[in-house]
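Good morning C.,

I know you're traveling, so I'll keep this short. The sequence:
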Amino acid sequence: MVTFSDIADYRDFLKSYYDRKKAEMPFYSYRMMGDKLGLDSSYLYRVLQKKQHLPAHALASAKEILALSGREAEYFDLLYTAAVTKDKGKREELIAKALSLRDVDRHSLQAAELKVLENWWIPAVRAYLELNGGVVNLKQIAHDICPPISEAQAQEAIDTLMEVGLVKKMASGRLALTDAHLTAGGPEKKVAVRKFQKQVLSLASDSLDNVPVDERNISTLTLSVDQACFDDLGDMLREFRRLVQKRVDSSKSPDRVMQLSMAFYPVARKGGVASVKDTEDGTRESK
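The tokens, ready to paste straight into the viewer:
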């Protein structure tokens, strides 16, 4: 099924849903889907062919069968309103707002590329190269990384980043980043992700003693929540992370590399210790 970051017409959500249901159940029909939306089969067909628009009364049902909520539901609504409005300026404004809800582009790490996560300073060196215009000065790089690393480690980081294609050499001899953000998924990658997360959380702890207070921002909250609040806060954290990445993309003249660690975990629970399960990104969540 297409994701909301892949499409620019709300009807593609519906067409993708129909195609998927048809593949799962060959007897699935326009009539069956139309019944859920309060539409007759011929009208639904014209909607999926982009010859008609959904009537407003069908929007809630459409989002329900598509299981859209939060940012995806807002994206769907914005695309719908943009599609039916006759005001060109308003349409462009709505589309721009919808596009701002999309995720940042990510480079998905393959198995061979997981060595990027073996040491915290490899991604740090990659980000640092953006600060200094891609100049490879091992002594300077090693000195400026916090805490400092060796020149050998700086060289290993550059070699690794070159090998996996996350930086490339320009004609000038300088290095340039090839993608803005990284992500890793799949069960075989959990161990590497968890190891990396442990390293950066350790750095956060060390920064309390080693980094001046005006150069860091660390705060904690201890909260009492129910399951619904827990789920909502998780959604808020994911949205905050997306907004952070969007804001970083618009940074014109970066002069430092920051590490942002967000941790949200239980310290007390009614009925004893919660069981846990692994999630795709290598974190653990309460059951």
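Safe travels,
E.
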